[in-house]
Amino acid sequence: MPPSTRSWEGSISDVDGRRSAEALEVTALARTWGRLTLPGKVVFTVVPVLAVLTAGLIAVIALFGGAVVDILNANLGIVRFVAAATIILVITIPIAFLNIYLEMKVIALMNLRVGPDRVGPWGTALSVVHGLKVLMKEDFTPTGADSVVFTWAPVVTYAAAVLTIVVLPFAPGLYGQDFNIGLLYFFAMGGLGVVGLLMGGWASFNKYSLLGGLRSAAQIISYEIPLTLSVVGLLILAGTMSLNQIVIQQDGGLANWYVFRQPLAFVVFFIAATAEANRTPFDLTEADSEIVAGFATEYSGMRFGFFFFAEYVNVFILSALTVVLFLGGWNAPMEIDPVLTAIGGILPGLGITTPVTIALDPGALGLPLLFLLLLVPPVGTLLFAAPFFLLRSSMRWWVALIIGFLLFNVVAGGLVMAWAYVSFEWVAGLLWFLGKTFFFVFVFVWMRGTLPRVRIDQLMGFAWKWLLPAALLNLFVTALAVVVIRS
Amino acid sequence: MTVDHRQPSADDPRVLLDEQIGIFEPVPPYPPRTEREAEFYTLADGELLINIGPHHPATHGVMRVVMKLSGETVVDLDPVLGYLHRGVEKLCENADLHQTIAYLDPLEYVSSLFCEWPAVIAYEKLLDVEVPRRAEYIRVLTGELNRVSSHLLAMGFHALDLGGLTPILYSFIERDEIVEMLASITGQRMLFNYFRVGGVNGDLNHEFMSRLGDWMSRATEQIEANVGLLNENEIFVRRNRDIGVMDPELAIKMCWTGPNLRASGVPFDIRRAHPYSVYPELEFDIPTRQEGDSLARYLLRIDEVKQSLRIIDQCLHQMPDGPVMAMLPRLLRPRPGRAFAAVEGPRGEYAIYAVSDGTDQPFRFRIHDPSFLHLQSFSRLVPGKLIADWMTINASLDPIMGGIDK
């Protein structure tokens, strides 16, 4: 063996000598430290550091807090944009999980299979496990791939999908940013997604990927034209590009929804959106029986995960845009507030104080509200537990208490939801919005379970020969109608 | 000891790094052997060679097709076979007559009975055996059941190759029921090993009859409902119509048989043209279609399923009592000679040419498989079409690689 240059070989002999020298200098503090257990050592290290940091933070806030708040106040738009973008980035993950689960379960039921049923109740946690699996897989870059472009491609695709959510109005007042060019921004950001697919297809150094990337470019750019043109007629009617304003204009029941004034545009838009999201029957970019997995053939691990997530986020945002533009966004199909108010008005007249009427103004209760909050949970638990304990002699008291507690939680949760629905406009709006959006997500999944895939020439022919003329016809008729009515 | 780095060994990890062995080209590593090969592997401007397979979702097994593409259009293609070659013919030449039947099962593994059938007919010709009539009826009954299951599978995979996820599972409901009822008399779900020289391995049993009765009462409606998902689907019909059109003359020249030939308008069916077993006593039509495209081949399989159900019904009513196996010695030594037997399978003509030299093993054993002959017409059907059309044509021809590679 050649003479070693490893450092540890030379230092072994020194250790004993140094240790004996240090042993003489042991102080009381060092001995105490040595007697501490590991958790004790951690606590005695971390607590002082935290204390110092907290004191420093308080000092900084006291000294510069006012200035920072002023700066943030001065740039409220930017702050709001950054906060919204961060929240939306986080929100996309449960959205994608939900869509993936929905897809697995619904297609399984359509195929007369059971579908996911192992992880969590009815397999609901399977997409979480899916996400973990994707995280833990090997992140593989094939030989000959352009590694920089290969790495950035999924990021571009995912960012494009996420950035569009910023302008989506989820509920009254619940939106990232209310641009006056909201729709234009949406299409611009959504169109960036194809760049990522093309990058992934080109950089993978694989012919299947290349074909998939080029297919996606041809398909998405072709379908963006009818997608955008179908909305122009609606914009003439609405007179604004702000998605928030478009939703507000559809207020007041089913009749005001744009789907009834622009039925042709709705059909064209939904078909083009299917192609834009690369969904069956237009999923040529990842046609598994033709080009294996298209642009994603060489991707694995979390880089594939980003493509996968982006696809499902795309499904969600295109469903959401369909709802916002044509189906009234957060608006309920009919007014149900008068019904609730009527119920709230009748019952107190009969001498009954309902939870609804209290909830409409809980502050009016004053101090008793505190006692109510303290007393209701134990009393409610006991009340719900009592019948189980009294009517079943074999029931142990603590089992009855657990059942009572769970029942109380279910009932209380339902009541809180009802209170929130009645009291806060945005909760009702959010529920309506998500309900409609997930109906369209279901339609996307339904189509995937039912339809075969179209061929590339049929796909392009359909866009240019049918959808584009239909969109132009819709635009022409709408414009003519508007001119005639106004003059 | 010093290591000479100028001559890296295969154990040296740096060898992998230096010679990028991760990159595979479809071009073979040897110089072209024929003019056709030289022409095929010479690329014009803007053309691209791409490997479809050997492991690819749409190749129905382990087939490799080298495609020369210009954009999405297939300019030319070259199927490369042999990835599933087991040497079945040679194996059979070294086994006695009973053992060969087991080797024949995995040839076309979705229609195993039709692989066994010509072999037992050929042996019976060599041995001059009279097969009991009940055994012949059982052969026809189980064979037609197997034909239905094979056609259902073909229809499901046709849809799967076109991107439809659901029809395959609906087909499998019926197929699974058939396969289970066949398993109740043969003991296996796929590779039945049921036919014997001089009869069949066992008589029909109660489980088979009750399952068959249940299934026959609902089969027609169920199959009609399942194919409705595709037959009335505009996307499916448009992707199949006028794709892979084969005219009858060329089909005959290409040795096509079975549903693929009948979809081109030639009413050739071995059950009627060269009758065997008890088919002359049974009533059934030979469905034909004139279009010769993928849609016609798909629809013809549905028509054949209906005819098969008719045959099964007649078999059940006309089946006589009696033995299911002829009295034969345990060791079969046919007279020296040669025999040819062909049956009409779900893909076409399954045939065996057996030469005996008087020993208990065949001297020569030639297997004729229809899928191989259908596959060779790719070069006529596919060029000029799109990649996706290759999937359609491949699915409509319904090749099984086990039989092609033998």
What does this structure look like?
The complex is a heterodimer of chains A (487) and B (406). By secondary structure, chain A is mainly alpha-helical. Among the domains of chain A are: 137-333 and 453-486, no CATH class; 337-423, no CATH class. In chain A, 74% of the residues lie in helices and 0% in strands. Chain A is built from 19 helices and no strands. Chain A has helices at 7-23, 28-35, 38-74, 76-110, 126-136, 147-164, 182-203, 207-238, 243-249, 258-261, 263-276, 288-291, 301-326, 337-349, 355-360, 368-391, 397-423, 425-450, 456-486. In chain A, helix 6 (147-164) runs parallel beside helix 13 (301-326). The longest helix of chain A has 37 residues, at 38-74. Chain A is globular. With 406 residues, chain B is mainly α. Chain B has two domains: 23-80, no CATH class; 88-405, Cytochrome-c3 Hydrogenase, chain B (Orthogonal Bundle). Chain B is 47% helix and 12% strand. In chain B, the strands form three sheets. A three-stranded antiparallel β-sheet of chain B has the order 1-2-3, with no helix packed on it. Chain B starts with 12 loop residues before the first helix and ends with a helix. The model of chain B has no long low-confidence stretch (mean pLDDT 87). Classes of the chains: A mainly alpha (487), B mainly alpha (406).
